[in-house]
Design brief:
The structure holds two protein chains of two kinds.
Chain A lengths: L3 E3 L2 E4 L5 E7 L8 E6 L6 E6 L5 E3 L7 E6 L2 E6 L8 E9 L2 E4 L3 E5 L1
Parallel strand pairs in A: 2-11
Antiparallel strand pairs in A: 1-3, 3-8, 4-5, 4-9, 5-6, 7-8, 9-10, 9-11
Chain B lengths: L2 E5 L2 E3 L5 E8 L7 E7 L5 E7 L8 E3 L7 E6 L4 E6 L8 E8 L4 E4 L3 E5 L2
Parallel strand pairs in B: 2-11
Antiparallel strand pairs in B: 1-3, 3-8, 4-5, 4-9, 5-6, 7-8, 9-10, 9-11
The chains are: A mainly beta, B mainly beta.
């Protein structure tokens, strides 16, 4: 069963970097994922798709401050030069034949 | 510019039906799968359903929580995706988002339409 696990919360200071983690369940460590951002009181926005071969593609207008990486079953979203507008919920999404799955989301606080 | 516009949400009583729509602009609608994702108040995102494009048979898949009650469909001539929701329950209360599906992740989202199931 495909399950994505995210830490409920994270925090980092303005101007610093933060690395958010999304862990794929056993048997799915080679899956690609997508990252989405949801700012307060707004709808989600696609950030990037991260493929299992390490390649990735960002959404329209997404700055290169947002980058993806992976190690084993873990997928990471790194946000550098944190800005106040980066304070948001971040969701990872994965897929398998016939299903799509979201992680529970990480609430990022910018201090 | 890709745009997805949902409509049709509202207040409905438990057990009743409602159909929400998603009108697409700015891309070749018929070439893409489309998904519905919902978000209950104060909760995270939950995938609901997706429909493949005609080249992949136009078939649909559903989350276990809605299978047998919800039906997704598409009208490629009008660039619209639909979600027919029957036998609605209070736990179906959520904002329903339409997304363009890359055969994997969603890469564009609509603004959402609120469905409230309450007596």
């Amino acid at each position: 069963q495909l399950v994505l696990t995210q830490s409920p919360s994270a925090s980092a200071s303005l101007g610093a970097s933060v690395k958010l983690t999304c862990t794929l369940s056993s048997g799915h460590s080679s899956n690609g994922i997508a990252w989405h951002q949801q700012q307060p009181e707004k709808g989600p926005r696609f950030l990037m798709k991260f493929n299992s071969d390490g390649s990735h593609s960002r959404g329209d207008g997404i700055p290169d401050r947002f980058s993806g990486s992976s190690s084993g079953a873990e997928r990471y979203l790194t946000i550098s030069s944190l800005q106040s507008e980066d304070e948001a919920d971040y969701y990872c999404q994965a897929w398998d034949t016939g299903i799509r799955v979201f992680g529970g989301g990480t609430k990022l606080t910018v201090l | 510019e890709v745009q997805l516009v949902e409509s049709g949400g509202g207040l409905v009583q438990p057990g009743r039906s409602l159909r929400v729509s998603c009108t697409a602009f700015g891309f070749a609608f018929g070439e893409f799968a489309m998904s519905w994702v919902r978000q209950a108040p104060g909760k995270g995102l939950e995938w609901v359903s997706f429909i493949r494009n005609k080249a992949y048979g136009g078939t649909a898949e559903y989350a276990a929580s809605v299978k047998g009650r919800f039906t997704i469909s598409r009208d490629d001539s009008q660039s619209i995706a639909y979600l027919q929701m029957n036998s609605l329950k209070t736990e179906d209360t959520a904002v329903y988002y339409c997304t363009r599906d890359l055969g994997g992740g969603s890469d564009h989202w609509g603004q959402g339409t609120l469905v409230t199931v309450s007596s």
